[in-house]
Amino acid sequence: MFRTILLAYDGSDHAQSALKTAADLAKIHDADLHLVHTPQIDSPHIVVGAFARPLATPPTAAQIEEAGKHITDKAVTAAREMEVEIKTVHISNDNPAPFILATAEKTGADLIVLGRRGLGAFGAMALGSVSLAVTHGAKTACLTVV
Ligand code: ATP
Ligand code: MG
Questions:
Q1: Strands of the 32-37 sheet, one edge to the other
Q2: Is 69 exposed, middle or buried (0-12, 13-18, 19+ CB in 10 A)?
Q3: What pLDDT shows up at residue 93?
Q4: Which stretches does DSSP call E strand in 24-139?
Q5: Atom 13, ligand 1: which residue's CA is nearest?
Q6: Tell me, what's the pLDDT at 82?
Q7: I need a labelling partner for 105 at 20 to 30 A (CA). Which of 2, 90, 114, 116 fits?
Q8: What are the residues facing 8 on neighbouring strands?
Q9: What's residue 18's pLDDT?
Q10: Residue ranges, the chain, pLDDT below 50
C-alpha cells in the first residue's frame, strides 16, 4: 500500500523508534525509504557529536551539514542492520517542519513517519512542536511512533 516512506529523524530515542517502524513498513510494503534531518544548533547531539566541544562562535553552514551527516549516517547504518537501504538523505538547517513537509512533496512520499516526541525536554504535551506541525500540515498520511 505505501510506496514511498519519509522518515523524519532528529537523533533522539523517539526517532530511533520511528526508524525501526519506518524500516519495518518499508520491508512489508516493499517501499522506498527516504530520510530527512534538520540539524539544530542547540542540539546536544551536535555539541557532543560532530564538534566534540561546545562552539565559541556560531557554526558555519559546512559545520551544520557535517553535524547533520554525523546523525544521518547513524540512521543509515541502523536501517542497513535491518536490511533496509535508505534511498536518499535530505539535510538542511531550515526550520524542521517546513523542510520535512517540502521533502515529503519532493520525494513523493505517501507516508511520513516521526517520533511522537524528540530531543525536547518539555513533555507536557502529547506531541512535540515538530510532530504537531508536520501532522497538521501534511498532505499525506503521517504516523507518529511512541
Ligand atoms: P520540541 O522540539 O517542541 O521541544 P520534542 O523535541 O519533544 O519537542 P519534536 O521536535 O516534535 O518533539 O520531535 C518529534 C519527532 O519529529 C522526532 O522524533 C522526529 O521524528 C521529528 N523531528 C523533530 N525534530 C527534527 C529535526 N530537526 N529533523 C528531522 N526530524 C525531526
Ligand atoms: Mg524537537
A1: 86-91, 32-37, 4-8, 111-115, 141-145
A2: middle
A3: 83
A4: 32-37, 86-91, 111-115
A5: 118
A6: 97
A7: 116
A8: 36
A9: 98
A10: none
Q: Are 34 and 5 in contact (CB under 8 A)?
A: yes
Note the pLDDT of residue 40. Answer: 78
Residue with cell 543509515: 76
Ligand 1 center–CA 47 separation, angstroms: 17
| C-alpha cell at position 126 | 502529547
* pLDDT value, residue 5: 98
**Residue 119 alpha carbon, nearest atom of ligand 1:** 6
pLDDT of residue 55: 61
Atom index in ligand 1 nearest the CA of residue 17 equals: 18
Q: HSE on the CB side for 102, CA within 13 Å?
A: 11
Q: How, if at all, do strands 32-37 and 4-8 pair? A: parallel
CA of 47 to the centre of ligand 2 (A): 15
Inter-helix orientation angle 96-107/129-137, to 10°: 40
